[in-house]
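Model the whole thing, not chain by chain.
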Amino acid sequence: MTKHCCGPGYASPAEAMKAPREKLLYTIAIYTGTGIQKPDYLATIDNDPDSPTYSQVISRCEVPGIGDELHHMGWNACSSCFDDASMSRKYLLVPGVRSSNIHIIDCATDPRNPTLFKVIEGAEIKAKTNLSAPHTIHCLGSEIIISMLGDAKGNAPGGYLHLDKDFNIVGRWENSMGGIKFGYDFWYQPRHNVMVSSEWAAPNTFMPGFDLEEVGHLKYGREIHFWDFAKKEPMKTMYLGEDGLIPLEVRFHHNPDSSHGFVGAALSANIIHWWKDAAGEWQWEKIIDVENEPHPEWPIPVPGVISVILLSMDDKYLYFCNWLHGDIRQYDISDPHKPVFTGQVWLGGLLGKAPEVNGVKVTGGPQMIQLSLDGKRLYVTTSLFSTWDNQFYPEIRTNGGCMLQIDCDTENGGMKINPDFVVDFGKEPNGPSRCHETRYPGGDCTSDIWI
Amino acid sequence: MMRTVTIANRDNATFQVDHRKPLLDSLRANGVDLPYGCKYGGCITCAAKLTAGEVHQGAQVALNNRQISHGYVILCVARPMSDITLEIGVESHDKLYRNPFLDPLEPHELKPDIATPKDI
């Protein structure tokens, strides 16, 4: 069993993999953009196969406002403060991208029924830091930083909001944004004194929806940035160009000694790999290129649109979703320069390969994913962002999103859809909602960083 | 000055509003339930369709010129210049969203800051 020293999380990725199986899942669900005038909420899902409420939403923690657009979320503490007995993984920080309100939800007092603990008002964040549109949350030891994609008026590049462990606003985390044009995701690897950040677009550009022409007008990102983590300023930018249009999720190896990391370029549908070479220089290469697919009714082939990537805790497998194609892929990245395609499943998507799964019509495509610590269960949801959903999958308004479980073969590679688990958010009590990022009480494969 | 706002898809309900205040604030103060997000004209959540009259919405940065030509207005920053008629809520969004790969924009249909004027 996991040896608990004192603080939250695990001593190492290998220890995390031995943690007990997750029995509760938290995912956000939105009504923003659906026409239903109800608050977005954090849904708690029972995924204990021995429980009578298995595969059902068992509680809903509504936020106070309407129209926040809950999206990503993060823990107040993770394995980065494993040695700190004063810390515990108790609160999920759940921001609204549109409202900039950050909801602090207590998930530990009663894990089956999380409750709202505090709200940091978007107005306070804007007034004190001139930032808006919160996205990715990582704790750094007992501190918390959040990538904010815009200034108070929704212009790029935004910056980083710094909170203390009691959720007070400290101010801006970064000392400089350098020449960075846009923000989105970030991940840090402190043993290399590095943070890598990626680029979506200004909130005023992406929030109303996706105009493809704006990519050509350089309104969307195509660079990634390497930061001097201690100095809190960017030190090197990599121009990815046409190979790296809209680079989104950033994942370093979980192994804290490794310099290897990956980012998925959504629109180019490529996986970009970076590493530090023998001379100490950061390098990058394209390692996976998803071909566009023909569509009977489209004048141009459909790009995959890689909306998320994720690494297993042992850094052996890379998973990603092609939200428009409708597939999730698994690659063995034991050699990160030479990925091996080992598994694929289809659900939803525009190519019509799997319109219905486990008795539920899948509207949208595979989008956010979360992997169990042992690497065997991958949870997937189907909604990307309300306005973008409305453009590509308009029927999601009436059908809602859904959550499925993919069983992953960690020995030989391979994936298959679990036939027993499906959560249909089209059947929610207040009407069809859409689910997005998922986390669980014990930490997961995108929350914990080792210092 | 007070203006009359008629909501076509709420049984033609009418409201008297101050022309200096954003329509979102005025209508919500009158009990109209409206979706909204950023409150600075950038996120499109509160878009409504103007079917008669004029508004001033110089602060909006969410709409492209095609959406503007379809009559969309951003209620959190739009102010009435005359008596107006609106369709509100998601029911009015039939032409707000389009698949960008299937239905591209012409250069003059982009957002105002990057659009190329159309030759007449």
